[in-house]
User: Fold Extracellular solute-binding protein from Halalkalicoccus tibetensis.
Amino acid sequence: MTRRDTARRGSAAEDGFDQEPASSGSEPDPDDYSRRGFMETAGTMAAAGASAGLAGCIGGDDNQGTGEGDFVWWTMRGYIPEETQAIQETAEGFEDWADEEVNVTTNVVTWDQVFEEWTAALQGQSAPNVSEMANAHAVDYGSAGAVQPNTELFEQYDDWYEVPSYWGDYDGEFWGFPWFMEIRSFYSNMALLEEAGHDSPPETWEELIEMAMDVEDDTGETGFVSGGAQDTGTGQVVYGITAQSGGDFFGRDGDEWSVEMDSPTSLFAHLWMASFQEEWDIAPGGWSGMDSTDAEQLYREGNAAFMINSGDAANEMINEDEDIADATELSLIPEGPMGTNTAFMGGSCLSAFESDYTQHDVDDDISMSFIEYMTEPETMEEYFPEAAPNFLPVREAQEEIPPFTENSTEIPDEWIDSRLEQAEDVAAYGITGLEQNTPFLGDVEGATDGFSVAISAILGGGEDPRDSVVDQANRVREGVSDAVDYELEENTDLPDLDDAPDELQAWIQGDGVPQIWNP
Assistant:
């Protein structure tokens, strides 16, 4: 096991935005986060005052700030040392870039610790001026009055990619300023494919299954692996399959949200993924107990032909100088029945805390200037190469920076080009279909381990798939109802595949494509 494997097992982030057991760069594991819990905490902040404080030093720069102009920001980029150092050194450059005197301190916090640290800091009025977070958290904190809107800064740019253009939007304001995108990648072990008689990665779902079967038959190795356990990364893969099947996890009618996780399309997506194990026998043994880190390890050891996982895995293969890197191709997620190559998208934003809760009282303009500075293309040139291929742009102007123009890294050009191309076809649950963020994602993700409890129950618990998706959806409805001022009624009807979209019926009937498992 590598150094970073050990570090990731101790983290709650799933990358991916890989809210990757965990990889860096992903959205954090929501088990450690609750909007309801934060709201209760926020109600006691005034009484708590400065007495609570932030317990202990949390890493980063040893200089904790000693004079006028002190400015503290938190990042979760502590998993790859070279990346961390580049980001820290770039942040220090703000001292020369800013119009006013400022002394920048970078604190590195891991995803599995940051929720407790945020709570303690807000209670003790010792929060950072700016913090990395996920946009869902920015919306939650913003609607509770702890984070400033960054709408004016956001609207200075008109070249946002589609999903980032509404990623931090809620209630007429933008609360999270998109920093970078991170997506699920499709990995192919070409050595195993060639041994099984194939010379290129699959381009469609059908080719994926057929090639994976050939690998199983001809090499005895695993055809396909991703997270299969009750794990945030697993839920992200399920969501990507759902999006490629024409479905979504949420809907919206006027001012009210609905939950679509127990629709016929969602049922199909769960059955299609379960078919890897139950019908086509191309998943690894014990898949239901494997999280994203376990899946990555299997692939990196050369024992799987295909993998969906974070971009961090690619970075580590290169950093560790592993043989699997030479055999690996990164390509678009194979095309689904709706003709799309959609991948799950996560990532991070930068948000400024209100000065009532920060350790150092700085002008709001300084916080916004820091966010602007860190996300300007010329600034990102200083650290994006060290974050390749995991960090991806959120707007078109950022495509003109290294490593997307001049690649000085050891990452193959093809890997970077593939990731950049994939960034054009992504979706984020709770955001894409609604074209705005939501005030309940923190709670509902936590109640369902990132929407993975249904597939985990199907793969490992032998539960009826229809019951599993309905149970998960009802748990989400309860969480949504707790966060809004109307009640989402519990569903008692089981979904029927006869009502699934026409494009999915060939898979359901086995008409020209491999038939899905349908107990």
Summary: The first helix runs from residue 3 to 9.
